[in-house]
Structures are given as structure tokens and as C-alpha cells.
């Protein structure tokens, strides 16, 4: 989870449509910290520097599309474990398969059903919190094992 003084999850919303950014962020703003990116380079920069708890990523954007953004985020150590929910107005089964194979955790059709989106966000953030916790425990055990091996 990103380092903050409280436990409110941060969502990075990535879409090149100002209307979509506004609609989604307005619907989620009361429950989450919201970061917004209107293109691929900005999205990657924000994700690396701020490490949100989850990313909502439109696949149909000019310039760098959502698939390429997802591919790049999943190839970076700092952003690899951030859950990504792909969003699309029109998509095929092949698009969904591609997105999931690139590392996205979910796919939602636009217009977004906010109640379903919030439920999915809560589930994926909860999974991420547990995964982060377990990763910390694994690292602690590995450090202890190395320490014990050096002592003996």
C-alpha cells in the first residue's frame, strides 16, 4: 500500500477523456484518494512515483493505449504488483484475454456501473494489502535466515 498517514486507498484513474475522468473520479472521491492521468507517460510517471493501491485504465486512448501502459507497468519492479482494472466501451474476448495476460486483474465495460466498480476495487485492494503483508513477512524471514546462516 502506498505510504500515507491514513488508510484510505489511492486510485489512479487513467483516461484521455476529460468527461470519463470527471465522472469516475467524482463517483469515487468520497471513499478514495484520487490521482488522474490523461495519457500513458503521465500514468506511468504517477504510478512509479506515487504507487497507487489500484489503477483504473482505459484501453482505448490516443498515443499509448491501455494495453501498452499495462505492459510497461507490469514490467517495472515498483509497479508490478499494483492491481490494474482495464476499462473499455467496446472490446472483444481477445482484448480481455490480452489484458489479463498482460497482468490486469479485471476488465469492466463502460459506461461503468459504479456499485460494481466499488465492489471490485474493494476486493482487489484487499487482495493487494494481504499480498503486500505476506511479501513483507517473506522478506523478514529471508533476512532472518541469512542472519542465522552467517552466525553459524
Automatic annotation (TrEMBL):
PROSITE patterns: RESPONSE_REGULATORY. Residues 10-125 form the Response regulatory domain. The modification 4-aspartylphosphate is found at residue 58. InterPro entries: Bact_response_regulator, CheY-like_superfamily, Sig_transdc_resp-reg_receiver. One of its GO terms (biological process) is phosphorelay signal transduction system. Keywords: Phosphoprotein. The keyword Phosphoprotein applies. This is Response regulator. It comes from Sapientia aquatica.
Amino acid at each position: 500500500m502506498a505510504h500515507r498517514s491514513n488508510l484510505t486507498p489511492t486510485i489512479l484513474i487513467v483516461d484521455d477523456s476529460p468527461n470519463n475522468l470527471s465522472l469516475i473520479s467524482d463517483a469515487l472521491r468520497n471513499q478514495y484518494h484520487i490521482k488522474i492521468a490523461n495519457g500513458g507517460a503521465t500514468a506511468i510517471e504517477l504510478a512509479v512515483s506515487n504507487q497507487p493501491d489500484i489503477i483504473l485504465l482505459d484501453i482505448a486512448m490516443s498515443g499509448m493505449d491501455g494495453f501498452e501502459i499495462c505492459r510497461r507497468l507490469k514490467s517495472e519492479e515498483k509497479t508490478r504488483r499494483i492491481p490494474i482494472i482495464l476499462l473499455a466501451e467496446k472490446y472483444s474476448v481477445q482484448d480481455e484475454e490480452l489484458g489479463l495476460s498482460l497482468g490486469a486483474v479485471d476488465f469492466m465495460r463502460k459506461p461503468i456501473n459504479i456499485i460494481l466498480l466499488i465492489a471490485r476495487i474493494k476486493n482487489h485492494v484487499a487482495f493487494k494489502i494481504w499480498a503486500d503483508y505476506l511479501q513483507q513477512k517473506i522478506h523478514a524471514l529471508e533476512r532472518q535466515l541469512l542472519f542465522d546462516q552467517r552466525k553459524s
